[in-house]
Write a structure and sequence with these properties.
Blueprint lengths: L15 H17 L14 H10 L10 E4 L5 H8 L6 E5 L2 H14 L20 H11 L1 E4 L19 E7 L1 H6 L13 H8 L3 E11 L4 H10 L3 H5 L2 H4 L1 E8 L5 E3 L2 E3 L3 E9 L4
Parallel strand pairs: 1-2, 1-4, 2-3, 4-5
Antiparallel strand pairs: 5-9, 6-9, 7-8
Bound molecules: S-adenosylmethionine.
Length: about 280
Amino acid sequence: MASKPTHLEPSELGTREYWDNLYTTELTNHAHDPTDTGTVWFDDSDAERKVIEYLEDLGLSPATTSFLDLGTGNGSLLFGLCDGGWSGRMLGVDYSRRSVEFARRIARSRGERPLPRRDSSSSSNNTNSAPAEEEKEEVDEVEFLEHDILKTPPSALLSGAQSQGWDVVLDKGTFDAISLSSETDPASGRRASESYKARILPLVREGGLFLVTSCNWTEEELRGWFVGVKEKEEEEEDERTRRWRFEEVGKVEYPSFSFGGAKGQTISSLCFRKARNNAS
Ligand SMILES: C[S@@+](CC[C@H](N)C(=O)[O-])C[C@H]1O[C@@H](n2cnc3c(N)ncnc32)[C@H](O)[C@@H]1O
């Protein structure tokens, strides 16, 4: 079993203030130029397209699969899924109020153009359909909510058809940001990254997927965080969390490089499935 990786040096990217400032700037830029939808993290590795292609190859239903995007930023990954024809429920959450405002604003501006559709039976040959209806549908296509993954109980994101969890929970760069936080739990002294797995497990339904993309952690380290960790803090978790585990399903392929005899890649995306922990 892989051991828990060592911690990263805290940085400003681990603070809410940093992200609020960034999204305030991005809101201003977007107001001046609506085509400017802000930073897409790991764009240089084409991560968003590769993650979406990876999901397309899993044989999930584009019409019904529900997606929860943790630390959604500008919502770009969810909008990318919409553009690819995925039409199940989508929710993006972020602890930065300005991020949520930004993502909602982009959703509204997207609503001003026609919907892309995958399902030809619902694709509109109907020239009578009112533009206002299409706008409304697009605006509602993705929801955004202010939510602190570490401080707000997971139950706040579990309701209706998702009361038992989401089909797919996405994280692109959020565990990275959380790993850079200097915050510690006052009682245990543990770093924020150490509570992350216990926070997200309840958000995934049994058999559902968690797909994490990181530039700060290697594949092996991600395995250590999400599969391998079996230490004291897990024993202390409540009964509900202890019954579950993540098992690795696969990974997104990125170009690798060699340097000084060592092989590496700049980012890693690993996909895990939530399974029952028979051992407990
Ligand atoms: C590197 S950005 C990634 C944004 C987006 N996922 C993307 O790929 O473009 C990290 C995001 O995580 C959010 N974040 C960090 N800590 C969080 C927390 N505890 N709860 C919710 N969101 C958080 C930040 O506000 C920021 O939007």
